[in-house]
Amino acid sequence: MSSHLPVNLTLDEPVNTVISDMLNEFCLLEGIDLIESKAECPYHRITTLDQLSLFIKEDRIHPEALGLSRYNFHLAGTLNYGPIRFRGDNPQSENTREQLIRKLMSRVRVGLGLRGKQFHWVATTEYGYENRIHSHFLLNLGAKASLPAAMLISQVESAFGDLAKEMNEEVLGTLHLSPITHSIGAVAYLCKEEYRRPMKYFIYSQSIVSKD
Length: 212
Description:
Layout: H1 17-26, H2 49-57, H3 64-68, E1 75-81, H4 91-112, E2 120-126, E3 134-140, H5 149-166, E4 173-179, H6 183-190, E5 202-204, H7 206-209
Antiparallel strand pairs: 1-3, 1-4, 2-3, 2-5
Helix pairs in contact: 4-5
């Protein structure tokens, strides 16, 4: 498992040498160098709107990234699902995943004592090279962003564990969390195009969907 992924997010899929070689060519872009592994696009090195826009123009990042770049996200997470009902490649399972994500985010917000307008988040489903369905999400924690990262991570983990009990599941899956150092790079990673999947399903907090 790589230690060089943007904002410490993990891909969770084994390296496929054919796809690695393809991505090596796919990711070469003037002004942005590849990092050590050929299997990784340098999303973490996208630090300006010009770079982000160029990747979008090249159909390497979904255009939703531009709107999300206005937010300064503080925490990133990857959720690898356990129960089979969350792992289907169909609309019903997508709806089930969305319900879980929304319940998790609601618990996190309440646990941190934030009002809806103070808490921004976005999540998306990814399928991986071997259809290993998982979700990524980014959190903007408002006034709570100054709290120690370990405390914030513990709050999310606690909410995740409580949610499993509420849903009568022993576990909902595995949850990996990391503080974000470069928000635009994290947004780029979240919005990256997946091989042979032109569409990507995003879930937004009401604070992002509603007008300010």
